[in-house]
Structures are given as C-alpha cells and as structure tokens.
Amino acid sequence: MLSVQGAMCRGRDPAAAALLHRQAIDAWAAAGDAHGVQTGRYNLALALSVAPPTRAQALAEIDQVIDATRAAEDWGQLAAAWNQRGEVLRAERRWAEAAAAYRRSLRVADEALERLLLLYALWNLPLALVHLQDAARAALLMGHAEAAWVGVLGQLKDEDRRDLTRVRRLAARQIGTERTARAWREGATLPLGAVLRLALGGELPP
Fold first, then answer.
1. How many Å apart are CA 174 and CA 191, to the nearest integer?
2. Is 21:2 a contact under the CB 8 Å cutoff?
3. Separation of alpha carbons 38 and 76, rounded Å
4. Which residues have C-beta within 8 Å of that of residue 70, sequence separation ≥ 6?
5. Which of 2, 103, 140, 175 is packed most tightly, with the most Cβ within 10 A?
6. Whose CA is closest to 150, among 126, 119, 121?
7. Domain extents in the chain
8. What angle do CA 147, 112, 99 make, to 5 degrees?
9. For residue 126, what are the contacts with CB-CB under 8 A and spacing of at least 6?
C-alpha cells in the first residue's frame, strides 16, 4: 500500500512519493523480501528522477537495483532497471548513455523472453538515437515499436503519440520527410529478430 500511495502522488509531490517508497523499502526489508526491496528501490528511483536536483540520487538507486538483480539473476527486474536508467539519462539529455542503457535492457529482456519489457526499451531507444544523429535507424525502430505496441497493448495514449511525433519530426529534419516515412513503414513490417539486430547496432538495410 505504501508503494501504491507513492506511485499515486509521484507526479504532484515527488518528495512525498520518495518518502513513501523509502517506507515501503523498510517494510519489505523487515519482511525479508529481497525482491520487494529492489522493487522499492526501483520505485524510489522513479520518484527521484522527476526533479533535476535528485536525478543523481535516482541513478544511484537504480544502479543498486542493477547490481542486486544481476546477482540474484532476476532478469525481468534487471531489464526494467536498465530501461529506467535510460529514462533518467534521457531526462538529463545524456543521449549516448541513455541509448547504451536501453540496449542493455533490450539484451536482457530478449534473453529472458520478457516481451513487454523488451517493447518498453524498444519504444524508448529511438528518441536517444535520433538525438545521436542516427535518424534512419530511429525511424525504422519507431515504426516497428508503434505497430508492436498497438498489437500488444491496444490503443496509444496521448503521451505515446507525442513520443511518435517527436521522433518523426526530429528524424525528418535529418533525413527528410519521405525517407523517414519509408523507414517507418519498413520498420513496421520487419520481424523482431531483424529489429533487435538493428537496435543493437547492426548494419542498416540499403
């Protein structure tokens, strides 16, 4: 319940949310629930990442989760933690580091057969790539991510549509509207294996 309360107030009062998540961590620790403790740290990192002054703390928390879940071989939680590390770095506009974190999440999620976590990382990676001047790859991946997201989760939210628009606009500035649209369409038809190879740095199609 503490964790749920923290999530509910995260957007309007991140400091209060952080306090609730710390209380949740203490409760999980008292119960001897190691997985719960890492869940609490992950949630605490979410709260700390909202405001710029506490993002360094957010990275410290998420790095603890990464170390602990790797040691515990909790691959699903590890994939989520790498994705969240990317999100904190994205908020700081540290694009190369964010892309590296998303790629780590993709690798772990793929090996663990965590389809939904893989999709989250695949959705988030293109924005980092387009800021790194890798627009054609970003458009291919975002085209696939959009189609896969709708197929798995259904209708897109307004926030999701803003992500799509942002990537498309930035890519078009670099490679033009027509090439962006063509890459987007091509990405939507690519099989997942090919998409993962491209996401992890494989050679782009001609």
1. 26
2. yes
3. 12
4. 78
5. 140
6. 119
7. 1-73, 100-206
8. 60
9. 137, 138, 139, 141, 142, 145, 167
Picking from 88, 160, 169, 91, the residue whose alpha carbon sits closest to that of residue 119 is 160
Query: Do residues 103 and 64 make contact, with C-beta atoms less than 8 angstroms apart?
Result: no
The predicted structure's pLDDT at residue 146: 95
Residues 96 and 63 sit within 8 Å (Cβ to Cβ): no
What is the 3 state secondary structure string of the chain?
A: CHHHHHHHHCCCCHHHHHHHHHHHHHHHHHCCCHHHHHHHHHHHHHHHCCCHHHHHHHHHHHHHHHHHHHHHCCHHHHHHHHHHHHHHHHHCCCHHHHHHHHHHHHHHHHHCCCHHHHHHHHHHHHHHHHHCCCHHHHHHHHHHHHHHHHHHHCCCCHHHHHHHHHHHHHHHHHHCHHHHHHHHHHHHHCCHHHHHHHHCCCCCCC
Rg (alpha carbons) of the chain, rounded to whole number: 18
In total, the chain counts a number of residues equal to 206
